[in-house]
Specification:
The protein is α/β, with parallel strands linked by helices. It is 34% helix and 16% strand. The protein is built from six helices and five strands; from the N terminus they run αβαβαβαβαβα. Strands 3-2-1-4-5 form a five-stranded parallel beta sheet, covered by helices on one side. β4, α5 and β5 form a beta-alpha-beta unit.
């Protein structure tokens, strides 16, 4: 459980093993994208795993499109949405490689915020301008990963 949200995690799915760190990171993102009452930001969660950010953002009122390559993780994320009673239409999970799905997503999704967690050293080049996003949250795997993201704009 992270910040009151429960997670089911399959053995092959990625999940932040340090629950305290996960809670702190999610809290920072939630605080930063806090919208005025009545507004519902659209968040694109890339490499969403079992839904660490996606579920909490949706529960806080955001509309979330989440992409993950690991199909078992997507099944977990969908089960987690049901487990936490996330309202229908608030959260959409897409099973596929981020690199492949970005072109399809960018033509129809206009997020206010993009979350990359964990971002990949040789991942797709993404900038706020690609989506007219006003916030881009990049969560590195570790300290060495943070310094080797030549594609990060």
């Amino acid at each position: 459980m992270v910040n009151g949200v429960s997670y089911l995690v399959s053995p092959t799915a990625f999940f932040q093993t340090n629950v305290g760190a996960a809670a702190a990171i999610v809290k920072i993102v939630l605080e930063e994208i806090d919208q005025p009452k009545g507004l519902s930001p659209h968040v694109l969660d890339l490499y969403c795993g079992t839904g660490l950010f996606a579920l909490q953002l949706a529960q806080a009122g955001a509309r979330v499109t989440a992409v993950e390559e690991n199909r078992e993780a997507i099944k977990d994320a969908e089960a987690n949405a049901r487990l936490n009673r996330i309202p229908d239409g608030r959260l959409r999970f897409i099973a596929g490689r981020v690199e492949d799905e970005l072109a399809r997503i960018s033509s129809r999704v206009r997020p206010d915020t993009v979350v990359l967690d964990p971002a990949r050293p040789n991942g797709p080049g993404i900038s706020c301008g690609d989506f007219s996003a006003c916030a881009l949250f990049y969560v590195p795997l570790n300290k060495s990963t943070a310094s080797c993201m030549p594609w990060f704009k």
